[in-house]
Amino acid sequence: MASTAEELREEVRRRYADSVKAVTGEGDGCGCGSGSCCADDSAASAAGSAKFGEVLYEAEQRGELPDAAVLASLGCGNPTAVADLREGEVVLDLGSGGGIDVILSAKRVGSTGLAYGLDMTDEMLELARRNVAEAGIDNAIFLKGLIEQIPLPADSVDVVISNCVINLSTDKAAVLSEIARVLRPGGRVGVSDVVAEDHLTAEQRGERGSYVGCIAGALSKSEYIAGLEAAGFEEVSIEFTHEVADGMHGAIVKAIKTEAPEREGIPVIQPAPKAGCC
Ligand SMILES: C[S@@+](CC[C@H](N)C(=O)[O-])C[C@H]1O[C@@H](n2cnc3c(N)ncnc32)[C@H](O)[C@@H]1O
Q1: How far is the CA of 142 from the centre of ligand 1 (A)?
Q2: Is the CB of 12 under 6 A from ligand 1?
Q3: Which of 40, 160, 182, 241 lies 20 to 30 angstroms, CA to CA, from 190?
Q4: Are 29 and 20 in contact (CB under 8 A)?
Q5: Whose CA is nearest to atom 14 of ligand 1?
Q6: How far apart are CA 82 and CA 252, in angstroms?
Q7: Ligand 1 atom closest to Cα of 97?
Q8: Does pTM top 0.85 for this prediction?
Q9: How far does Cα 58 stand from its chain's mean position?
Q10: How far is CA 275 from the centre of its chain?
């Protein structure tokens, strides 16, 4: 069992590299059958099979995607349905996996917009690039990296989306402050994630499913709200959509980056007139 954050992250990376093999038929992968690896056996059996993966997308949306992108869907929601993407926007998908939400975002923002996918797993990035090429998309870019250290400049993104990935991070405070850094002031977050009811302790979350299966590492609703507010977000909302394990839910997380975070709470001091000035 992983004991350090590094080891846990490596376990997550291996799990999702294996899941690519399941999708491409090159191996047993994680053995989650339908391709939904973001649920281990206990969570999947407790919650039923329609809680993770492609079933969370409208049939119409699935119809416009390459089969491999649909099969590789491992999320717990459909962030593109809640992020209200507009023509010309720059979108960043954290933990983009096989690319399903990057493809949908790229179509929404059109040729004047751009969709970035960020993932740490080479096998996922390779699959996503193939899927994007098959979909005929030319306004998507995949980046290799960690969601805790986003390889993009400050204030460069309009919308951050993510589908069932933040719960897998071993440093969620870093993820939330990185999201705040890359979003332009007034930019927004529209994320699907697993979120625990507030009464569940960390130990009780761990009893309901594994870390790599997107259950044990989930934040509670209050922890998520406090983390986003501490990172400089306002209008934070978390809506439970479907139960994935006892007291744990697929949820839609929304927030807006405050327009002027550096001025919050700091009195504006007028500069003293320079000597000799009029
Ligand atoms: C549960 S899958 C979700 C994939 C995709 N969002 C979807 O809905 O199908 C998690 C993905 O996040 C990536 N991931 C997990 N932790 C990460 C981290 N700390 N930094 C970057 N990528 C990460 C994994 O490699 C994997 O592709």
Answers
A1: 13
A2: yes
A3: 40
A4: yes
A5: 95
A6: 8
A7: 27
A8: yes
A9: 19
A10: 53
- Taking the CA of residue 74 as reference, the ligand 1 atom at the shortest distance is 9
**In this structure, how many other beta carbons lie within 10 angstroms of the beta carbon of residue 62?**
16
d(CA 144, CA 147): 10
Q: Is the CB of 74 under 6 A from ligand 1?
A: yes
CA of 51 to the centre of ligand 1 (A): 17
- Phi and psi torsions of 73, nearest 5°: -70, 120
pLDDT tens string for the chain (278 positions)? Answer: 567 999 999 999 999 999 998 877 776 555 333 334 455 544 444 444 567 888 788 888 888 888 888 888 898 988 888 888 999 999 999 999 999 999 999 999 999 999 999 999 999 999 999 999 999 999 999 999 999 999 999 999 999 999 999 999 999 999 999 999 999 999 999 999 999 999 999 999 999 999 999 999 999 999 999 999 999 999 999 999 999 999 999 999 999 999 875 544 444 444 343 333 32
Nearest residue CA, atom 25 of ligand 1? 121
What backbone torsions phi and psi does residue 204 show, to the nearest 5 degrees?
Answer: -65, -35
Ligand 1: distance of its center to the CA of 116 in Å? 14
The CA distance from 250 to 228, in Å, is: 18
- 264 class by beta-carbon count within 10 Å (0-12 exposed, 13-18 middle, 19+ buried): exposed
Assign residue 116 a region: left if phi > 0, alpha if psi is -120 to 50, beta otherwise?
Answer: beta
233 lines ligand 1 (CB under 6 A): no
The residue whose CA is least distant from atom 13 of ligand 1 is 95
- Ligand 1 mean position, distance from CA 187 (Å): 22
Closest Cα partner for 160 from 94, 216, 249, 101?
94
